[in-house]
Amino acid sequence: MNHKESKRVAIIGAGPAGLTAAYLLCKKGIPVTVLEADPVYVGGISKTVKYKDFHFDIGGHRFFSKSKEVEDFWTEILPNDMLHRPRSSRIYYRDKFFSYPLKPVEALLKLGIFESIRCVISYTVYQLFPVKNPKNFEDWVSNQFGKRLFNIFFKTYTEKVWGMSCKEISADWAAQRIKGLSLFSAVINALKPKPKSRDKMIKTLIDSFRYPRKGPGMMWETCAERIKEMGGKILMGQTVTGSTYNAQSKLWKVTYKDHKGKTEILESHHLISSTAIRELANGLQPSLTPDTLKSADSLKYRDFITVGVILKDRNLFDDNWIYIHDPKVTVGRVQNFKSWSPELIPNPSLCCYGLEYFCFEGDGLWTSDDSKLIDLAKKELQAIGLAKAEDILDGCVIRQKKAYPVYDEEYATHVEKIKNELEARFPSLHLVGRNGMHKYNNQDHAMMTAMLCAENIIAGKKVFDLWNVNQDAEYHEAGSAGEEKVITGRLVPQKVILDDSEQKAA
Fold first, then answer.
1. pLDDT band for position 377 (50/70/90)?
2. pLDDT for 283-319, tens place per residue?
């Protein structure tokens, strides 16, 4: 057995993290098998679902990263199929549409002078007397924008997304998703020239991005084909039911079954998991301690429904998406897929909207008949003025489990406990990606954790701590004096990424 054969890798999940790791490992000649529960689509929540030649993006995926490595990866996979798209989004509030990012004059006129004055006063009060060490979403955002703007532009939408009070949501989520953004920075961003360096951009406020012409699934379908061309295996419709580690042989036995219930076992030296930590933890052998399993079972996930509505194109709006901050309707966000890419729509006289509903698996929305969900979407499109009844022609429903790991008050403590025990007992288990690490970050973060994971496996040792990848897909490590430095350019010095035989020759 050669040294590369001794690094056989099993990967749970064919999303951006799993496929990125598989692709990079296959390029080094390391045998890889990816197990994906979905029988049809790769890409995880970055897949593109097809219905009657229409293409649906699950959530809307901007291809923009501060990481050159991630951007280069996208270009390598799809060198000639990436569109450059202008970013356009708005907020719907009190029967009016507000540009987002903020346009101060427009916001002033639409909110009205008295409401605007109240917002400025509220912002000033929180600048002078901020909540110290904010622990929840409401306090963190109020510190940045003032309580009045929080109530107008954050509270309703956020509680739709999470199904819980903003006081129950950890401040970590706010700091992560709207990092660097405050009322002041939003106003300044609207008035000053855009920074040329992507490192200085606030990701929330970017005004353009790349996008695969057939949707994000095009990226991951092409990546999957490349993996198979290099000898990697991707097994679709296979659900992992358990993973057993033998400390003496240092081998994994991953048990999985297909939709007919047939069980198979895959043996590997490394196991990369992008599946939800809760499911992974409960399927591990030897078992985790009862206290750690209790932490795993305490982790929560928010599920997601997209109702795709096909209709005659009346050019009623050309935004990529609109946030719905109106409690009178259930929908949280509306995507306009034609504005992401015209190639998602087979007929230029038609358009296609995706109405996004946030729910928990098993609740009333999740279990509703497709016909009822489509009827709800039609009514709500008309209620917010984005469609006329006579123009709506067809619809379909797409359900996505575990779209968002929930950031409640205790999640960080639970994740830390699980991480510590896994690292102590399973040295060749690698957690990557959004659900794999219970980190609600974008696909570039998921990809960077997978890139560094692949480098660790190639190097035969832990060169990078994957938990040090920040939300901008940058890797931070402690410097000699305790300060942090960011790894840019090449991920790893050349001498580190040599495989075992090359190291011996050197």
1. very high
2. 999 999 999 999 999 999 999 999 999 999 998 889 9
Mark 406-422 as b/e (b = at least 16 C-beta within 10 Å): bbbeebeebbebbbebb
Written as six digits, the tokens of 47 are 């897949």
Segment 227-236 mean pLDDT? 98
Question: pTM for the full model?
Answer: 0.89
On the 0-12 / 13-18 / 19+ scale of CB atoms within 10 A, 460 is middle
Among residues 83, 369, 350, the alpha carbon closest in space to that of 216 is found at 83
Give the residue from 386, 405, 424 where a domain finishes: 405
Q: Domain count for the chain, please give it.
A: 3
User: What does the pLDDT look like over 414-459, one tens digit per residue?
Assistant: 999 999 999 999 999 999 999 999 999 899 999 999 999 999 999 9
| Structural domain boundaries, residue 140 | 102-192
CB 418 within 8 A of CB 279: no
Residue 170 forms part of a structural domain: yes
Taking 3-state DSSP, the helix, strand and coil percentages for the chain, each rounded to the nearest 5, stand at 40, 25, 35
8 A C-beta contact, residue 443 and residue 310: no
Instruction: Quote the DSSP letter at residue 14.
Output: -
Residue 460 in contact with residue 427, Cβ under 8 Å?
no
Task: Please report, as a single letter, which amino acid is at residue 361.
Answer: E
User: Are 249 and 262 within one domain?
Assistant: yes
Say if residue 283 is in the same domain as residue 413. Answer: yes
Q: What CATH number is associated with residue 15?
A: 3.50.50.60
CB of 394 closer than 8 Å to CB of 52: yes
Cα-flanking dihedrals φ and ψ of residue 101, to 5°? -60, 160
Q: What is the DSSP string of 23-81?
A: HHHHHTT--EEEEES-SS--SGGG-EEEETTEEEESS---B--S-HHHHHHHHHH-TT-
Report yes or no on 438 lying in a domain.
yes
